[in-house]
Amino acid sequence: MIKKIRIAHFICLSIGILYIIWGYFISPIDNLIILAIATGWILMYNVLLEKIQRRIASNLHDILLACNVNEYILIFEDLLKQYRKKSSQGIIIRLAYAYQLIGNNEMALKYFSSIDIDELPDNRKGILLRIHYYSCLFRTHIEAGNSSEAEQVLQELHTLLQSKKLSRSQKESWQPFYENALFRIKMKRGDYEDCEIFFQKSIQKENHLLNKVSMREALGQIYLQGERITEAIQAFEYVSEYGGDTIYKKRADKHLRALGQEITVPGEAEKRKSVQMLTSKEIAVGIISLCIFVIITIVALGHSSSSREEEVQSVATREKSVITVFFYEDVSESETEIAT
């Protein structure tokens, strides 16, 4: 689908440019009109296609948040084949994170090693890619029990989140992850009481299944440390039921078996909302604009044709007048000679 959108971008841009070039073959009065129409066409359809692309990206992210990680990996592996190396860094980072989520550290490391963080641009997009990269790196260290390395990565992440190149909404969207990361480090240090309170409160506010599963699994670990077996079993059962194909489910199943519990049958995954590529209003605007574009083109062609006909008639009239004058002069001279 992403590839089709890129092709649509190219087609719309080509039509607009060809329309501008075609405008130069029409009378000068029409050139400004043609230029305005073509510019409007390019801008409007570019906006519509960008909206479609953002909604597709949102839909793909929903697949991951619903704990369907293998499906997410298949889609992004296919996308990776369609992009050049320089423009595929965001996809590579997402694949590394997805492989982390299913516990395939070998593949995650393979993708991590192919990323050169210094090659990323020093603009907003580059900063966001760095944030994604360091968030994945943090998870790698925290899962391996390397608390000191995880802290260093978190400091880098904190510095990036202070960048003036990021919008306020972008900074706020990463704040929950940063707070979660701080408590993950506290948990590794054995500060279970504060972590329990934080994760319990966070679960109440969380809307995404993947994050709920992750925090439930963390709570299960905390309950085990405090020998609160009943609460630990309840937490792990939730993770086992809704964890999809994540590493959280695999670990929860392992704990449940160790506690002598049967593995619960996976529950029905939270249904993802179908993402409409364009709203009915946007579709209507696109169709109306296309109709206006076609009508104006037909009118312009008609006007151009009539202008050329008038010009031809005018030239023909002027030529006829000149011929008549020459003929009259020749006749006058002949009559004078005869009279003489």
What can you see in these coordinates?
Helices cover about 80% and strands about 0% of the residues. The chain is mainly alpha-helical and about 350 residues long. It is elongated and about 80 Å long.
List keywords for this structure.
13 helices; elongated; about 0% strand; mainly alpha
What ranges have pLDDT less than 50 throughout 5 or more consecutive residues?
268-278, 322-340
Anisotropy-based shape: elongated
Percent helix among the residues?
over 70%
Number of helices: 13
> What number is the mean pLDDT?
74
Termini distance?
Answer: 92 Å
Number of strands: 0
Taking all Cα atoms into account, the compactness measure Rg is 34 Å
- Which sequence of SSEs, written as H and E, runs from N to C? HHHHHHHHHHHHH
The helix-and-strand class reads mainly alpha
Largest sheet: none
> Beta fraction of the residues?
under 5%
In short:
This protein has 340 residues and is mainly α.
